[in-house]
Amino acid sequence: MTPPQADPAVELRGITKRFPGTLANDAVDLTVRRGEIHALMGENGAGKSTLMSILYGMTRADAGSVRVDGREADFASPSDAMAAGLGMVHQSFKLFDSLSVAENVVYAAEPRRFGLVDRAAARRRVRELAEEHGLAVDPDARVGDLPVGLRQRVEILKLLHRGARTLILDEPTAVLTPAEADALFAVLKSLAAQGRTVILVTHKLREVLEGSDRVTVLRDGRVVARLVTAETSADKIAAAMTGRAVELDRVHAPGTPGDVVLDVSDLTTDGVREASLTVRAGEIVGIAGVAGNGQSELIEALAGLRPTTGGRVSLLDADITHASATERRLGGLAYVPEDRHAVGTAPAASVAENLAMGHHRTSLSSRGLLPPAGVRAHARQLIDRFGIKASAPEVPASALSGGNLQKLLIGRELAHEAPLLLVEQPTRGVDIGAIQNIHDQLIAYRDAGHAVLLVSAELSEIRGLADRVLVMYEGRITASYDKNEADERTLGLAMAGGATREAAAVEAVD
Ligand SMILES: Nc1ncnc2c1ncn2[C@@H]1O[C@H](COP(=O)(O)OP(=O)(O)O)[C@@H](O)[C@H]1O
Ligand SMILES: [Mg+2]
């Protein structure tokens, strides 16, 4: 499919923006044609959000010009940009939780009758827009009660209500489940088919390949590639984003499993029923499944963060079924949680302090205390090994980007050299360049003889790393495959509840 050759909806010429110490945009040219879905890609810090905030009148450029629908534009505020037909959905939504969907959609642009807000008209308007654009949502629902995917719809409806012809979405799928993301792309495609223009800011390759017409890639504030999606590939985009060849979706050679490290039989907890599995030294066992099928609950129960109500768990032959999280750590378990903010790290503490956490009883400590010089040296070593971008070990963890925080967390947990590592979504929100590094580190950890239990929503990650793949469906482990049997189709089917073989039967053959 060739992308539309229509007139430009947006033209940015020579946009330059300098922040203290950073050239965020360096003479950027960007042309977005009417009716296309244009992906603006780049790793974290490449300058995407800055460029969009200049286009949207939120930030002033140091140099350059903006044209919208062929007209010279010099927006002093987002309301100027809106008046010119632009609309932006920000990374964090700007809705009123206590108001209804209809109230949010028409907010500050309310239909009025005799000077009063016409609520019936507002509800009607939302229904019309929702129907026209396939954005089904109940106009009377309270926004605070809606899941993230629907709140995003409300943001889009709000822009359409104000007549936006060009929609800018900044990392819209960062907060969505795969199914919600698919639904969003269906909506964006139909908006583009009606002649609206979509600028999609993202660093996710797959959705760009599936959902865009053209791609502009930024690196270090500069445009490094302009591509037609149908004529490019994930490898080419990844190489442009990172500045080097990246081997995507690499399938690592299998490990050499040794003795059983983790033995779980019939584990039951809230959300998990009678799960049985083993993980051996030198082996990565992957758990695949659609989010919400009990994977997180299983890992939390194994980490000691949720009570085990049935079954038995042993770690290195010790019964840990009812052990506390601390006892499990001391017994040889390390854990990289899915939620790196709430559970994994302390934002106010420094990078060095975060990296030292949990090390009070290791070689780093001296009589239970952590000597500052040792903590700093330990931090420097991990910052280097994992390529954590932090200006100094003393900066607070809250100053790190999501991807760098993830590297910190994984680095800290691997440094424990625990016999068993539980790791959930190790590369969610992480740049492609860094994903490869994290994968290599996990494989090296396995090859050093550690056992790894991996939960990931990315099938390519599971297939690339795991020696054995288990599938969870509705709280149960419903299938088990060896590395060579675990192709996308087989796993996809099992994840949808169509496993053809019982895990138990497969285990018996092993
Ligand atoms: N308000 C600001 N003050 C200082 N530096 C900023 C500001 N906004 C962005 N930057 C810096 O500009 C660069 C580009 O950031 P950004 O546009 O947010 O990138 P992206 O959206 O591609 O991740 C980064 O180095 C970032 O730290
Ligand atoms: Mg950004």
TrEMBL record:
Gene3D superfamilies: P-loop containing nucleotide triphosphate hydrolases. Residues 10-245, 246-499 form the ABC transporter domain. InterPro entries: AAA+_ATPase, ABC_carbohydrate_import_ATPase, ABC_transporter-like_ATP-bd, ABC_transporter-like_CS, P-loop_NTPase. It is a peripheral membrane protein. It is found in: Cell membrane. The keyword tRNA processing does not apply. Keywords: ATP-binding, Cell membrane, Membrane, Nucleotide-binding, Repeat, Translocase, Transport. It holds the Pfam family ABC_tran. This is ABC transporter ATP-binding protein. It comes from Streptomyces aquilus.
